[in-house]
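hiii, so i know i said id send this last week but things got crazy w the move. better late than never?? heres the sequnce for the chain we talked about at the cafe, plus the structure i predicted for it. fair warning i was half asleep when i ran it
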Amino acid sequence: YHVYCRPVPIENLVADLYGVVRGLLYLKKSGFVHADIKPENILRGSDHRVKVADFGLSRFVGAMGGQSFLMTQSLVNLQQQTSSQANLGKGSPAFLAPELIAAENAVPTFESDVWALGITAYMLAYGFHPFADN
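okay and structure toks below
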């Protein structure tokens, strides 16, 4: 999504956000946080299906269900390789939860993904960031 011009029609917004919430819940159940939820990382196909993209900052925080071990292990290996090559960030500054901004050693959580989704939902509904004046 590129929302810096106009809001998304409400009927599309509700369906698209539902798809993103389902994706985030799947990640949580699999033990991952995305850590970079923002409009640009929500892809809407010609079939109107929504996908969450850009898992470059995602991290494994612990499995919460019986998900595929191979998928989980592959992502853990990728995270270990990435973290040894570069410092994993907290996400895009305009979408960071207050606790990630306040504490230098804070790490993204499912709750900070939900915060970023809230900022994203506002931007999709109104076409601008809720704290644009700050």
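btw The longest strand covers residues 42-44. thought thatd interest u
miss u guys!!
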